[in-house]
Amino acid sequence: MSVLTLESILKGRRSQPHQLIEVLHDVQERYRYIPEEDMRIVSRELGVPLIEVYRVANFYKAFSLKPLGRNVITICTGTACHVRGSNLLSNQVLGQLGISPGDTTEDGQFTLEQVNCLGACALGPVVVLNGTYYKHMTPSKLRSLINSVNEKGIEDTDDAKSKTKGKKRQRSC
Amino acid sequence: MPKVKPRVKSVKDLAELRKRLRSSAKNFKSKLTICGGTGCHASRSQDVIDAVKKELKKRKLEKSVRVRVTGCHGFCEQGPLMILEPGNIFYCGLKPEDAGEIIAETILKGEVIERLLYTDPVTSNKVQTEAEIPFYRAQDRQLLAQNRHVDPCSIEDYIAIGGYSALAKTLAEFSPEKVIEEVKISGLRGRGGGGFPTARKWAECRSAPGEEKYVICNADEGDPGAYMDRSILEGNPHLVIEGMMIGAWAIGARQGYVYVRNEYPLAVKHARIAIQQAREYGLLGDDILGGGFSFDMEICRGGGAFVCGESTALMASLEGKVGEPRPKDVHTVTDGLWHKPTTLNNVETWANVSPIISNGAAWFAGKGTRGSKGTKIFALTGRVKNTGLVEVAMGTPLRTIVFDIGGGAINGRAVKAVQTGGPSGGCLPLDRLDLPVDFDALYDAGSMVGSGGIVVMDEKTCMVDVAKYFLAFLQDESCGKCVPCRLGIDRMLEIVTDITEGRGRPEQIDLLKELADTVASASLCGLGKTAPNPVLSTLRYFPEEYEAHINEKRCPAGVCRELIEYEIDAEKCNGCGACRRACPHDAIKGKKKEAHVINSRKCQKCGICLSGCKFDSIIVT
Ligand SMILES: Cc1cc2nc3c(=O)[nH]c(=O)nc-3n(C[C@H](O)[C@H](O)[C@H](O)COP(=O)(O)O)c2cc1C
Ligand code: SF4
Ligand code: SF4
Ligand code: SF4
Ligand code: FES
Ligand code: FES
Description:
The complex is a heterodimer of chains A (173) and B (621). Chain A is an alpha+beta fold and 173 residues long. Chain A has helices at residues 6-10, 20-31, 36-46, 50-59, 79-82, 86-97, 139-150, 157-168; strands at 71-76, 110-115, 127-129, 132-134. Helix content of chain A is 45%, strand content 10%. Residues 153-173 of chain A have low confidence and may be disordered. With 621 residues, chain B is of the alpha/beta class. In chain B, the strands form 6 sheets. Chain B has a 5-stranded mixed sheet. Chain B has a 5-stranded mixed sheet with strand order 13-12-16-14-15. A 4-stranded mixed sheet of chain B has the order 2-1-3-4, covered by helices on one side. Chain B starts with 10 loop residues before the first helix and ends with a strand. The interface between A and B is large, with 54 and 71 residues. The site of one FE2/S2 (inorganic) cluster has 12 residues of chain B, from helix 2.
């Protein structure tokens, strides 16, 4: 997809207040958060009071008013993932990186997000790292995954271990 | 495929196009269908697809072998999945490395590769086709089975299997009243949770005053653990569009909206492409099929708020506003989107419309129970062996779904409970599993069909924790507009949290019930009204688990963090040291080949050691 600019995002949507959420989605995709300056422009161009733009951006979970970290870890905490132990995964990230859902590490390396279902429930617990889905997550697999991002290039021992394990594991069908 | 789409201007054009598409499909010697649904994507099906395409190109077979990437086939647990024709051969658990062998052996020589077939867990026999797999055998897949025949990005595929013929039939033969009558006779009830009779909604909207009317497809699917709406929209978007068009004809609408959650990017993409393609063929727009009917539609993304699945909140959100429900003194069928008469139905409800028109109301009404007709898709998840999407006739006992189709609990454990209906539903114990899935029967037992999530729980699931889970979810998702919901759920959560953290007192149970009563009766919208259900049903069927937490400060399932300890069974431990090396908190000590011990003061209860011990020596008490 071509790079979105605020101009192209607004094209054909000016003075259409009902396009607010769609526009904010596109802004969020472009900058990975909603900058204040853009909210002002959106307010003016769509004809929605700034306070309403702010209220909407604040109400919906999809929008972030703070910049995201370089890597986004999304943990599914939906029912199917929960009963398969996804709470241990959130604890794991808290223990390892010291961040709770919605937070970003101080060095800007990681943001932790929680969602209530990603629609891959059959494979829970599910974790998404920068858009890639990981199924059947366990605390130790998640730990290795975070390490592998953190020390890119360095073969993490845990990671190497889980790789050989993966090979040995028998096909389940 | 022609580059410029021929406009389909009449029913005859459509029939001719279908004939052409079917005959050009015969040019392919074999067909290879790979699941590209979200579940299989999570199992890296894209790598398999790429490998297969590369292999076909290498062997110059692109023109004789059709590769069709489709939506979900239901058996997500076993993905990535592939079906090969001729032969109807079903392969599962594929890896990119398998591509070469599949082309060389199966496509070119017609040999079946044993290793890639499914193994029947009971007989240990390899089975070759979908029909022989127990997971599929007990189902009645009316909607889901279509997924394998259509590439969601190809309207041609949909037309080839008979798509848009229900629309053609409607425009040519049915008056709007006749459509509503047909839907009424079919007995179709809304699949979005409440089970409201669809025809009644349409009739009320049709007779509501006003020229401008709208139809909306609710694809918000906020219920965590449910993903059938996604799988239909993602796998077969035209089925939903066609249903909406027939509905729009019936009520007299010219514009439709699909409200879909943003967490479902593939569904958004496929629905957008589908609408575009339908427009190119002239199946959306003015004077559709020459029948004088004009209709167009738009996709709107949700913002990740559960409450926006509620009809009035959804309409507010569609208008670009904060999604807060409003009182339903006046129904949305007369005063809906932009204060115009509006019909809002769930994805699966819309998907059922064109089969009803094509096959007749009697066909649909012939399935199911007295009060619940047709089939229903369930998302079978949790601590069950065969997770995936299951489509069965209404009235099928829960036991059949959980045991015959689902294969029972994982790791040979015992099923303890089944949660149905999501945050609005409840947990049913094992001895209630003979109940049929029927809107009214489940409601009477304190649960609900809801949108169709079935979450299986075993002895490793703590029912108090489940109650807490739903309360926390609902507290987070409450829009906060009305006091009983906002404060009531909060207070209930506080009490249940006390119980799971060892501060519970016996008298709190009565207070919990009293609060539940108030929240259920005084909340404004369905979220608050049904919020107490998970708590009440666990209290009703699993009181002993609450008692263990309150009186003995013990979590029998080993889930509630404050009440458990990780320990090593010295009898079983052989001192392999795997846990010691894995523990990130240095909490495990022990010499090689001697039993290890966990220092409970250092242990963070992270669970890392548990999954790593191959000898089952680590216990949670
Ligand atoms: C809090 C809340 C959330 C809901 N979420 C959904 C949803 O995600 N999808 C859906 O189809 N219906 C949902 N519903 C039900 C809708 O309000 C509405 O009844 C339904 O979409 C009507 O369609 P149907 O008649 O086809 O079932 C929800 C209701 C409530 C109260
Ligand atoms: S019941 Fe809850 S979600 Fe519904 S309107 Fe009231 S506060 Fe909002
Ligand atoms: S991994 Fe298991 S067997 Fe090995 S030392 Fe730890 S508890 Fe003992
Ligand atoms: S639960 Fe975690 S912290 Fe505790 S012993 Fe096991 S690995 Fe170590
Ligand atoms: S519950 Fe986690 S993906 Fe649905
Ligand atoms: S996503 Fe492939 S079977 Fe469900």
